[in-house]
Amino acid sequence: MKLRKSALVLGLLTFSLGLVAQTERVGVNTRTPTEELDVQGSVRIQTLPKTGEGVTTNTSGSYDAGKSTNFAPNKVVVTNEQGVLGVMNAAWPLFFYMPSVLLPVETTDPSYNSGTQTFTIDLYKLYTDQFNPSSIPTPPAPAVQSPGATGLPVVAKTDLEYYVTYYDKAVFTNVAMTATGILSYKLVSAAPDVTEKTFMNVVFKRKL
C-alpha cells in the first residue's frame, strides 16, 4: 500500500512539474510554441475599450474591479514577418501632412465673408476630395500612381485632430481651427503680396 501511495505522489509531482514547464509557453494549434503565447491561426478580440472608457487594469498593472482607470492608449501594436507582436512609436504613423491646396486670398472667392472679413475653408473636405475623388460628383482627372496601387485610406472626420504648424504672418492673421477641420483666417492687408512663402503647413493627426 505504501508503495502505491508513493507512486501516486510521485506521479502527481511529475504531472505538476510538467504543467509548470508547459505554462512557460502556451500554444494554440501548435505543439511547439516559441513565445509565451503562440497562436497558429487568426485571433479575434470581441470587445476592445475605447479612449476614456474604464478598464480593470490600473496604472500599476494590478486588477481594479471598479474600473477607476480610464483607457488612454499611447502605443501602436505592430508585427514582424514571423507574426511576433511589438510596439512602435505612436507619433510617426499617426500623422500626415494635408494634401497641397491653394488657399484663397481674393475677396471675390466664395469662402470669403465680407461682413467678418474672414476666409473659411473646410480642410477635411479638401483632403477627402484628393484622397477619395469618387466621393465628389465630378472627380478630377486621376493623378499618377504606381502600378497596382490601390486607393488611399480616408480617415473619418471625427477621428482626426487638425494643426497649422506654419503660416506666413506677413499675409495671414487671426488663424483658427475647429475640431472638425474648418480653417478660418483673415488677411493682414486687403491686397497681400503673394510669394513663395505664402502658404500654410497643415497636419492631420489620428486620435489615439
Count of DSSP H/I helices: 2
Largest sheet: 4 strands, antiparallel
Question: In what order do the strands lie side by side in the largest sheet?
Answer: 8-9-12-11
Portion in helices:
10-25%
Q: What are the secondary-structure elements, in order, as H or E?
A: HEEEEEEEEEHEEEE
Evaluate the radius of gyration: 29 Å
> Ends: how far apart?
65 Å
Structural class: alpha+beta
Give the amount of beta strand, in percent: 25-35%
**Average residue-wise pLDDT:** 80
* Uncertain residue ranges: 12-21
Number of strands: 13
Shape: elongated
Summarize the structure.
The protein has 208 residues and is of the alpha+beta class. Helix content is 14%, strand content 27%.
Search tags:
alpha+beta; 4-stranded antiparallel sheet
Notes on the protein architecture:
With 208 residues, the protein is an alpha+beta fold. It has helices at 2-22, 123-131, and strands spanning 26-28, 37-39, 54-55, 69-70, 75-79, 85-89, 95-97, 112-113, 118-122, 160-167, 172-177, 182-187, 200-206. The strands form 5 sheets. A 4-stranded antiparallel β-sheet has the order 8-9-12-11. A hairpin with a 4-residue loop joins strand 8 (112-113) and strand 9. The chain is elongated and about 75 Å long. Residues 12-21 have low confidence and may be disordered.
Question: What is the strand and helix layout of this fold?
Answer:
Blueprint: H1 2-22, E1 26-28, E2 37-39, E3 54-55, E4 69-70, E5 75-79, E6 85-89, E7 95-97, E8 112-113, E9 118-122, H2 123-131, E10 160-167, E11 172-177, E12 182-187, E13 200-206
Parallel strand pairs: 1-2
Antiparallel strand pairs: 3-4, 5-6, 7-13, 8-9, 9-12, 10-13, 11-12
